Amino acid sequence: MTSKRFVLLCIVSTLAACASILAFNFFMDDFGLYRTHQPGERRVWTYNRATKYLFSLKYIPENFDAILIGSSSSAAMVDTRKISDAATYNLSMNGANICEVAPAALNALNRGRMRYLVVCLDPYLTKNSMMKTSELNPQLQRSALGSLFTMKLYLYKLVYTLCPSKDSYRDSWWGYKLLDGRQAARGGDEQANTAATEPESLHIDDKALEYLEKILEAARSRNTTILAYFHPRFKNDGSEQDQAHLEYKARIIRLFKPQETVLDLNGPEFAHLTGNSDFFHDGVHLTAKGGEMVCSIIERMMRIRADQN
Fold first, then answer.
1. What is the structure's pLDDT at 186?
2. Beta carbons of 279 and 287 less than 8 angstroms apart
3. Residues of the chain with pLDDT under 70
């Protein structure tokens, strides 16, 4: 074989391999970018922030009419399938601040017809504006047709298919994440008390506030009803909120209009929630029972606003 023919063969083989990779990823369409899919036909396998960003480009706008945004407080164990009044996708992201949630939230709001934007307010969401994931931009869409990102995705799919017990996203058809271990199923005073007493910074980052306000303005411009709640925290002694949390709440609530619904789930009227260890995996994160309780509260908020309109 001559060198010219060898080079030509290498070029043709490379092009054929690239075409095969593109065709395979287009056919699999794990992120719902190229074809229309029904709700629950696409799920998170890994890289929850990047995956949900890609979902927000087409899959979520086409299939859902409400989104829940927040950090891990609402990402874990809040199964929004239990909200019957609106098809609600849990767009909350584990370990994310509002700056990382914002690109996906804005996509969903601007590309779809969202009836409701539900915001889970927690100090972690606004304590900094650092982008820990650099891929959350339109360029990420190109990697969905073949890249190291998709290779890792298929590796995780293989591992989780063979070992489903390791798959914490195995029930993530509407976006939420399972918490591992027995405590996630039954709660527990000891674990809840330990996490509840851990010190936490209530610093509010000005840039993070700007991102939250940008999301709220996008919802208002689309006539999307805004519902928000301050995430519940476990308290087994009936104590009132400390001064730091009260100051955090006062500053955050100024972002909302008087006609918009904002509930504080740490108030005395929700003592049946915050005082029950069965509802908490730790001081902040919910069990399945706690998630169901929060979903019922969200659904009640939706019904009240629907009646008002």
1. 42
2. yes
3. 1, 4, 6-9, 12-13, 15, 17-18, 133-135, 180-201, 236-241
- Interior angle at CA 71, CA 70 and CA 73, nearest 5: 95
Contact 249, 214 (CB under 8 A): no
The whole-number pLDDT of residue 246 equals 85
Using DSSP's 3-state secondary structure scheme, residue 281 falls into: coil
Q: What is the DSSP letter of 79?
A: -
For residue 18, CA distances in Å to 11, 12, 183 come to: 11, 10, 46
Cα–Cα distance for residue pair 155/169, rounded to 1 Å: 15
- The contacts of residue 7 (CB under 8 Å, 6+ apart) are none
Q: 235 with 279: CB under 8 angstroms?
A: no
- On whether the pTM is more than 0.90, the answer is no
Tokens of 304: 């009240």
Sheet holding 225-230, edge to edge: 88-90, 66-69, 116-121, 225-230, 261-264
| Helices 206-221 & 98-111 angle (0-180, nearest 10) | 10
Pairing of strands 88-90, 66-69: parallel
pLDDT for position 190: 41
